[in-house]
């Protein structure tokens, strides 16, 4: 059936212009937006006219925003004459049908343009929510396509709205609205409309499915990897790969630790992150509302790494009491006057060091050490895959 343009008598107002403007505002391809509306109208008409799922071709919708084409038609069955069971939405008399195609006969089917007034009534009743859902789906799909490449990256966002009761904040990122939940905000921080902040994109839908409400762009100000991205922005040595951040631990709003190493023996990894006059580390802490950041030197030697992780406290000795990967633990001996500093306020320094190194850390003052503190658990030897299969077969 040939496409048709809407006539002046069909009052759609600024339908096409509004959709084109909406598509441009949201950065969504107008064709994608048209497909969402088409889907909503088709579903609405099928439901209203009680078409079965297998009759999917009985409703036809074509929308072309650029060329102002809006065509809606229904496949109707040709009947002899009007009777008491006549369904005008799904049936057409032979006389009327032959005006469309003279070769038609009773029982044939013919595609008929739907009456505009009838469509408006049905659409107003059923399609409104579906079209709105189509817009949301298009936006989610657009976010997935545009931002998928930026997952696990930090981007700038502008505060556009603040919910007084929930404290959720609406951010604008590349003309798209994204919600920053209260739980993903740094404790105690406040926002102002128009303020620009850095957020970490911690989740982006990779695949899009029609009607899937789980399409999302999740952003955070509390994710520990935001710290890493902020240092990359401030420290050229990290950005070019000379200095590498090996691990990060964080208590949002209070304190963080990062472990760094240098691929160039002539470059001081810790000093590069701190910067001249602490300029680089100060820029990072300013962005995260004064949260303190400890920069420590990474080491492949776990005992040395644990010593570094517990800084600024001094340590006398580290004993790896359990080296097994799923149960790693150690004892750390510190001077008596360093015990409180090593543990930290409410245990925070020890907790951050444990998260940074992956070891459970038990800190003891030098005067309280007993011989049992140096007892260790042997490393469990994992069987080779073939040996494990043989052992499993024997057990059976």
Plain-language structure description:
The structure is a single chain. The protein has twelve helices and 15 strands. The chain is α+β, with helices and mostly antiparallel strands. Strands 7-6-5-8-9 form a five-stranded antiparallel β-sheet. α2 (30-49) packs across α4 (116-147), α5 (225-234) packs across α8 (279-287) and α9 (302-309) runs antiparallel to α11. The protein starts with 14 loop residues before the first helix and ends with a helix. Mean pLDDT is 82; it is low at 1-13 and 208-213.
Task: Provide a quick synopsis of the model.
This protein is α+β, with helices and mostly antiparallel strands. The protein has helices at 15-26, 30-49, 94-100, 116-147, 225-234, 236-239, 269-274, 279-287, 302-309, 339-343, 348-357, 385-395, and strands at 59-64, 69-79, 91-93, 109-113, 154-162, 169-173, 176-180, 196-204, 217-220, 243-251, 255-262, 292-297, 317-322, 329-334, 360-365.
Radius of gyration: 33 Å
Proportion of helical residues: 25-40%
Cα distance spanning the termini:
69 Å
Low-pLDDT windows of residues: 1-13, 208-213
Shape: elongated
The ordered string of helix (H) and strand (E) elements is HHEEEHEHEEEEEHHEEHHEHEEHHEH
Total beta-strand segments: 15
């Amino acid at each position: 059936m040939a496409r048709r343009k809407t006539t002046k008598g069909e009052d759609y107002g600024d339908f096409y212009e509004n959709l084109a403007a909406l598509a441009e505002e949201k950065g969504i391809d107008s064709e994608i937006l048209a497909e969402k509306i088409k889907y909503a109208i088709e579903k609405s008409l099928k439901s209203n006219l009680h078409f079965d799922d297998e009759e999917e071709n009985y409703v036809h919708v074509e929308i072309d925003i650029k060329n102002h084409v809006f065509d809606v038609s229904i496949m109707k069955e040709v009947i002899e004459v009007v009777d008491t069971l006549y369904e005008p939405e799904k049936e057409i008399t032979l006389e009327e049908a032959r005006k469309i195609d003279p070769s038609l006969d009773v029982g044939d089917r013919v595609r008929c343009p739907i009456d505009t007034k009838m469509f408006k009534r049905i659409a107003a009743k059923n399609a409104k929510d579906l079209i709105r859902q189509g817009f949301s789906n298009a936006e989610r799909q657009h976010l997935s396509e545009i931002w998928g490449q930026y997952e696990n990256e930090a981007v700038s966002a502008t505060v556009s709205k603040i919910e007084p009761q929930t404290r959720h904040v609406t951010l604008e990122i590349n003309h798209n609205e994204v919600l920053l939940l209260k739980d993903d905000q740094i404790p105690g921080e406040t926002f102002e409309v128009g303020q620009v902040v850095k957020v970490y994109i911690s989740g982006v839908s990779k695949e899009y499915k029609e009607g899937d409400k789980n399409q999302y762009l999740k952003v955070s100000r509390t994710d520990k990897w935001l710290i890493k991205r902020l240092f990359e922005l401030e420290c050229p040595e990290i950005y070019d790969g000379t200095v590498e951040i090996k691990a990060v631990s964080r208590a949002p709003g209070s304190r963080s630790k990062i472990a760094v190493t240098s691929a160039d023996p002539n470059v001081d990894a810790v000093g590069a992150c701190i910067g001249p006059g602490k300029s680089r580390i100060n820029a990072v802490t300013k962005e995260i509302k004064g949260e303190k950041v400890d920069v420590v030197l990474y080491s492949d030697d776990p005992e040395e790494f644990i010593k570094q992780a517990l800084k600024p406290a001094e340590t006398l000795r580290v004993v790896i009491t359990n080296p097994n990967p799923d149960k790693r633990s150690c004892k750390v001996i510190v001077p008596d006057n360093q015990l409180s500093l090593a543990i930290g306020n409410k245990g925070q320094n020890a907790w951050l060091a444990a998260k940074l190194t992956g070891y459970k850390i038990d800190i003891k003052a030098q005067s309280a050490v007993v011989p049992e503190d140096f007892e260790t658990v042997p490393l469990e030897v994992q069987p080779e895959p073939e040996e494990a299969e043989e052992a499993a077969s024997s057990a059976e």
